[in-house]
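Now for one record.
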Amino acid sequence: MSARLIAVAGTGTGVGKTVVTAGLAAALHRRGVGVRALKLVATGVAPGDAGADAALIGRATGARASDCVLETYRTARSPFAAATAEGRSVDVEALLARVRALTRERGHEVVIVEGTGGLLVPLTASATVRDLLRSLDAEVLIVARTDLGTVNHTALSVEAARNAGIRLLGVVMSDASGVEAGLAAENAGQIAAQCDIPVLGVLPRLADPEDVERLAGIVAATIDLAAFMPSASPVAGATVVASDRAHVWHPFTQTMEWRDEDPLVIRSGEGCWLVDVNGDRYLDGIASLWANVHGHAHPVLDRALHSQAGRIAHSTFLGQTHEPGALLAAELCARLPPELTRVFYSEAGAAAVEVALRVALLAQRYGGHPERNRFVSLADGYHGDTAAAVSVGRSAPFHRGLDPLLFDVLRVPPPHLVGEAAALAHASDVFARDGAHIAALVVEPRIQGAAGMWPHSDAYLRHVTGIARSHGALVICDEVATGFGRTGDLFAIGGAGVSPDILVLGKGLSGGYLPLSATVVTEAIYDVFTAPYEEHRTLYYGHTYSGNPIACAVARASLQLFDDADTLDRGRRLASRLSATLQQLVGLAVVREVRQRGVMVGIELGNPAGDALDPALRAGRRVTLAARRRHVIVRPLGDVVVLNPPLVMSEAEADMLVGAVAESVIEVAASVQELVPV
């Protein structure tokens, strides 16, 4: 269990942060709490000295002053300006690592870290104090003045913290100038009411703040210390689990196993990491179900979300438009083959597949071919879990018993079952026999994801879509899983040199932030639906939240990041690193095969003889639970362990991901008799 982490931030410089930090630490220390307090960065400190602030914090807890500050600069300016003036730079990652290490040290129950100046003080050209505290997932206490002007400054600081998703503990007001008691109390009440935040105390002006014994007593008398005790942390994992087990039904989750296991309760995320209610960090090896692209809590996406939410959260897209939806459509089409010009929004990938199937069927009918009412799809395909999507992507384990809901589909074997030449021959036979009645071919380009990460070549994709077109069928490419860089190109169709009639997008469209999907069609298809009212060619389909403006605004920012942050190249470098690191799994007796396309990876388990495992062994699930104990999140598809991380995962994180999975496979192999070599 990690220590409770509390960060002390201020509404500005000189508001009394250090006095409050030292006073809280001293008061907790004298109550037997294992407390560690320190400043993150101090400026205006002579070389070789820790500084007066660190000295005060050290006296409060009996620690050396040099242990109470992580980084110092002699220039009395912001950390960024001071570091720049001295030819140095603030290493934010190193600061994060050192604080996290402190929270794990034996004997530490509460760790208090003091920021520098206000929340938006720059540490580097791109990171502020707020960014650092958000990355730490600390509870933040804001220290504010008591005098005139403090309400505005405090409200702005509270708003800045909340806009970044920071967990606010409350406000402590510090009288640094000796205002009358009535004004201090009036301002405290106004801040509490206006900001909807607890004011945990008002620290009076101190004649000698260096007297730590007296400081501890005054803090205990004027500040609500109970809010800072180890047991006072707002973490309520047991309450969350109890409510969940009583009322929630989770998707794709074995309810009996869920009932019996100790679940992971996620509180926040940052970069490629998830943080649970205990403050423990887990590497997100599946991009939160293949959706997250740029990392969690990305500041650019956060700003886009907050900015749009401040204008309007939702307005219908039925018969009216808005800026985020219209501009996103244009920006999407600019990155797609030129034939794809029209965007229809939904929320989930399956819903976008439903749109694609409906559009294909009606486009054939309105184009004079009502007899074209059948679909061709690949066996073992997956296209979502609504009725029509299940029909074209049926999976026996997932969709057993649903026959009354489904329609019949012509299925052709995929390359991984029969080889590419035979797969194309089968497709040719089906289209030669039934081509006059086929509306469209539905295919996942480059890799069949949920089937177990089975890749096929770009040549196969070009040939099978060519076969469909030669018989008058439309081509639907489902890139819900493969889009937005996951196979090495922004879209798999672009890299493969295929331009479908209908393209389906989802998951990464909003960067993994919000439910948003899209069905993109050619102008020729759109024109078929454009006719006088009495012909009733309107696409009578849509959802309440189609084209939600917040989701579209975030999606626009996500697309722009591909240009601004070198995201696609980072994804390609990650794929290369994964490929090299995965070699440690190839030689294991219980690994039948490692399959990869881009960052999409499937590790298929089997017994040492090379045979498939009894599903009842739940070997894939065992590996994922073992990986979780190593602070890595992956998911199984039966006995295929899936890796599909955010594109921005670092090399060190990729090494940790694969290493943890390899260790987990070895652990499970040693504990399951059927996996032990004879």
